[in-house]
Structures are given as C-alpha cells and as structure tokens.
Amino acid sequence: MNEKDAIILQYVAEEQSLTKAAEKLYMTQPALTYRIQQMEREFGVPVIMKHAKGTYLTPEGEALAAFAKRMRDEMNAMKDYLVNMRSVVKGTLRLGVASYYGLYKLPPLLRKFKDLYPEIQFNVTCALSSEILDLLAEQEIHVGIVRGNYQWQDAQHLLHDEPICLISHEPIDFKKLPQLPYIHYSAPKLKSSRAAATSLGQTIQAWWHEHYNVPPLIAMQADAYETCKEMVKQGLGYSIVPGVFVTPEDGLYSLELQLNNGESIRRNTWMLYREHTCELAIVERFVEFMKAEH
C-alpha cells in the first residue's frame, strides 16, 4: 500500500461514490475500481461494498483506511522533521482556510510570504470553518483560519473582526422592515459534525426579536453572501451580511447592527494551530507573519 492508496480509501469513505472519488483523484472510474481490486487481492479481504445509495467501505476497508491515515500522518510528520532539522524555512505548509478568507484575503498574503521564503510550497484547503476545524483536529493541516467562535483548546490568535451590516439599495424606514422583502443567507449543510459555539444566525435573530415582534418577510434564500448582495444591488430587497462583503464601490446603503445594550454585532476571524507545531520553522514563521500582518 502506498500514499495514493491511502488517499483513495479516504475519498471513497468521504464521497461514498466511486464516480465522485475518481473525479477528486483525477482518475477514471475503471482505473479506481482496478486499484481497489488490487488492494483486495493484496490483503485478502473485501474493501468496498455497493448499495443502491452508494459505495461504502467494509469494516475491513475502514480498518485499512484508518491504518493508511496513520501511515500518511507519520510520513508527513517525518517529512516536516527532516526539512526542519536545520531550521531551514522550506517544505510544504498545509493550511485550512475559511472559503471567504481564501477568496478575499489569503492570495496576496501567500504571495508576500513566499517572497520572504521562496523555498516553501503551499497545500491549501478552502472549506467551511467547521470542516477546517476537523482537519486541524485530525492534524491534516498545520494552521487553520476560521470564521466565528469555535471551541479550540490550543493556540489561537484573533486576526480581525468585522461588523454585521444591513444593506439595501436605498435608505430604509426601520419601522417598515418586517413588511419589506428580506434576502436571507442560508448556510449550506455541514458535512462536519462540529458546530460553532456561537452562531451568527442566532445573534441576528436576537437582534431582530429585540426590535420586532413578528418574523421577517423572507422573499429569497441564498447560500452565498455574494448572491445576497447582488440581489440587493438589483433592488430586490434588503439583506444582512458581514461587512467584508460590502465596499463603497457597491453603492449600497449600509448600517452596522447593534443590540439594544449598544454592543455591536461582529464576526471574528481566528487563526488556530497547535503550539507544538511551532517547533517547525515553516509554521513558526507563518504564524509570526500572520500576527504581524494583522
């Protein structure tokens, strides 16, 4: 069994579909099936089982996948150790980044960091914050950047926070807000079992109930803040979005939300990592770089 076999088992377990797993691996499905058959012959046990709803690992396949993951983790740890024996800033930095941050903030920061340390490479996963936390817990990544407040017991650093804004095409009479069409952000379904300790949606609901005794008039639902903003720009209603998604160039009316006690509703962005990983020069320098930049 090699590293690619380990990745094959991981993707089959995650996707529960040979077709989707093959797409992620840039393989044809027949080639993937052939490799799984080779593993079954090598170990003498069935690795997968097919049902009407998908393809699953057998108990033997699950045990093999767990072994393969430990093998990959140990290999990655050894690579990191060997590269950093002389404290040389080189090797591959594995990052997990909330999708918004990967789009709006990360690219110029990575460019600047690589200019400082040309010998490094990046392995970046952009996903939902809860999924990033899972990757960090499983030690698949060195550093995670998440949005919102999560339970994390190791090292963390607040990169920045931002206001939550009500946006509309024109100024709004707040007394009439419940009668106006609301373009509602609806978060995509989570693959991760983890949830935010404090939900932004719950905080917005608390703000609403402080001001109104009737629910909002939800006219549209979108799973991306960018979509909500574009609908607002066309005059189709108002929305409530994190401030990072709104710029003066959008030409929108924007108001930062506050609770009745005067507390501003804000969204935090955190850098999370394990303290011991800073023994690796590449992680230590990146953490210090991010703290300086923010």
TrEMBL record:
Belongs to the LysR transcriptional regulatory family. It comes from Paenibacillus glycanilyticus. Signal peptide: none annotated. Keywords: DNA-binding, Transcription, Transcription regulation. Transmembrane segments: none annotated. Residues 1-58 form the HTH lysR-type domain. It holds the Pfam family HTH_1. This is HTH-type transcriptional regulator YraN. InterPro entries: LysR_HTH_N, LysR_subst-bd, WH-like_DNA-bd_sf, WH_DNA-bd_sf. The keyword Transcription regulation applies.
